[in-house]
Amino acid sequence: MKQLSSIDILERLEIGEDASLEAKEAGGRDGLGGLPKSFFQSYVSMANTHGGIILLGVREKPKGVFTVVGIQDTSRVIKQIWDELNNRVKVSHNLLTNEMISIESVEGHKIIRVNVPRARRTDKPVYLGDNPLTGTYRRNHEGDYLCDAETVKRMLAEQIEQDRDSILLPGFNIDDLDAASFSIY
Q1: Cα separation, 18 vs 36, whole angstroms
Q2: Disulfide-capable partner of 118 in 4, 9, 20, 51 (CB 3.0 to 4.6 Å)?
């Protein structure tokens, strides 16, 4: 995912939240920083859709107006993310690597940027809790929406389907390809 500068982040916030951007205040009870409960709902939604960016330390109040407030104790919030991502009771798949979580300085405040990748077909559904039928979300526009049972069942079925285009057929070589079809492709 493309790295955004602090100016790029501010420009994205001017546009507002959408399918690929979510902002959360993450102030915590003591004001030093805490992971909002809704973080993982956005995480699984983005993973099950097209991926995206979650910015922690950005307040949306009133609706559509974003203010960078920062997080004082970023290490505590990042530790919470890793602890819960690796707890299978909380979330089914950890898709993140260390490089996908970063601390950014915007307007003199520290915010946490989380780049959520799109889950591979074999990793879907990514869900909350221990039941994919009740914990699978998808991202539409700027919201995280619970998937219906049929959508979840389709994701589960696609996990085990082997992609037909990835199977090597023994006894064939390049001469067996139709040259006209290949050139059109």
Answers
A1: 19
A2: 51
